[in-house]
Amino acid sequence: MEKQTKAIDIPFNRPDVYGALSIPVYHTAAYEFDTAADMSDAFTGRVAAPDYSRVMNPTVMYLEEKIRVFTGGEKVYAFNSGMAAISNTLVALAGSGKNIVTSRHLFGNTYALITKSLKRYGVDAKLIDLTNLREVEQAIDENTCCVFMEVVTNPQCEVADIESLAKIAHKKGAVLVADTTAIPFTEFSSHSLGVDIEVFSSTKYVSGGATSIGGIVVDYGATEDFGKTLFNEMLFNFGAYMTPHAAYMQSLGLETLDARYKVQSANALELAKRLQHLPQVKRVNYIGLEDNPYYKIARKQFGPTSGAMFTIDLADKEACFKFINKLKLVHRATNLFDNKSLAIHPASTIFGNFTEEQKREMDVLDTTIRLSVGLENVKDIYEDIKQALEEF
Ligand SMILES: *Cc1c(COP(=O)(O)O)cnc(C)c1O
């Protein structure tokens, strides 16, 4: 049976008394036990039964199980945001005196987490070019706890060679952690390319309609230690587990993820091709276009689709602001992979509090607009963008 079919059809662990077809939302903090021995079994982990919703909740466990079936991960943990998934992973792996080998091309908050927040606790950040394998080899040392990458960086749209990075990391005893927010697990298996821990913001493709915030960690066995993982410790001590309501929304989103993703990717490709012909658009940066420097590696890793995010460059910042202000259908909003199309000027928003020098180092340009292509008819999205560029 195909994974998509299995993931849709996963039965609840214990059926609801009314036979509800949709997973009930278990809005409860605690769970009652029949005997003291049952209680002890649950609390000590001998039996995987929920005892307290900071670490286990049936609605959240249902989402985790669906994603486990899809990815083939050993354990899946749902956190209350993408940043919680990333920060808990890095805190679990790192420690004072350790370092993280990563790139300057990172989601803004991940960059700040690694270079500011974790730095205060004695974790060093080695920011290198992950597409340069020799640099990677030289950067990893005995104190490297992990190599951290984004599979398609945001907003530079850079794609590193995952398989080669995994080989180098493993040879040197480091774990490869990949943020796969940009290309979902329904489309490619990061683990088959060598990724040890997959993290992603489920706010994006999984939730779909931008209904809720969430983050997922898929542990492919990297932190297993006598049945308990470092992530169990994180959930107990840092308390950033997903809420049942968010898990409900995201289980529903997950059921349509594969279908939505395919339409959004096709829309993005069609739109990117059309925008290349508009004179006001100086550059279209989409990994699905054959002239993109990452086209080949993206194809090899992710298959025939390339996701719903790409950027366009206009003449200058003023042109970008004018363009954004004139949009009628495409929404002026952050977020990615909503059902609706979205546009944002990353340099003045997501990266608005970074210095000009930092932005230069991160290749975040004043001329760039990031687009997230939705489920509208692509002709209408194109017409809106075209009218917003008129009179330039
Ligand atoms: C949005 C995003 C995050 C953070 O996720 P939240 O759910 O907003 O906390 C992390 N990484 C990437 C690549 C993202 O796009």
Characterise the protein shown here.
37% of the residues lie in helices and 15% in strands. It contains 13 helices and 14 strands. The chain has a 7-stranded mixed β-sheet with strand order 1-7-6-5-4-2-3, with helices on both faces. Strand 2 (99-103), helix 5 and strand 3 (124-128) form a beta-alpha-beta unit. Helix 4 packs across helix 8 (230-238), helix 9 crosses helix 13 and helix 11 packs across helix 13 (378-389). The protein is globular and about 75 Å long. The mean pLDDT is 95. The structure holds pyridoxal-5'-phosphate (PLP). Pyridoxal-5'-phosphate is lined by residues 81-83, 107, 110, 150, 154, 179, 181, 201, 203-204, 213, 215, 336.
In short:
The protein is of the alpha/beta class and about 400 residues long. It has 13 helices and 14 strands.
What topology emerges from the helices and strands here?
Elements: H1 3-8, H2 36-43, H3 58-71, E1 75-79, H4 82-93, E2 99-103, H5 108-117, E3 124-128, H6 133-139, E4 144-150, H7 162-171, E5 175-179, E6 197-201, E7 215-219, E8 224-225, E9 228-229, H8 230-238, H9 244-275, E10 283-285, H10 295-302, E11 309-313, H11 317-326, E12 331-332, E13 342-344, H12 356-361, E14 368-372, H13 378-389
Parallel strand pairs: 2-3, 2-4, 4-5, 5-6, 12-13
Antiparallel strand pairs: 1-7, 6-7, 8-9, 10-11, 11-14, 13-14
Helix pairs in contact: 3-9, 4-8, 9-13, 11-13
Helicity, as a percent range: 25-40%
Ranges where pLDDT stays below 50 over 5 or more residues in a row are none
CA(first)-CA(last) distance: 53 Å
Strand order of the biggest β-sheet = 1-7-6-5-4-2-3
Count of helical segments? 13
Question: What is the chain-wise order of helices and strands?
Answer: HHHEHEHEHEHEEEEEHHEHEHEEHEH
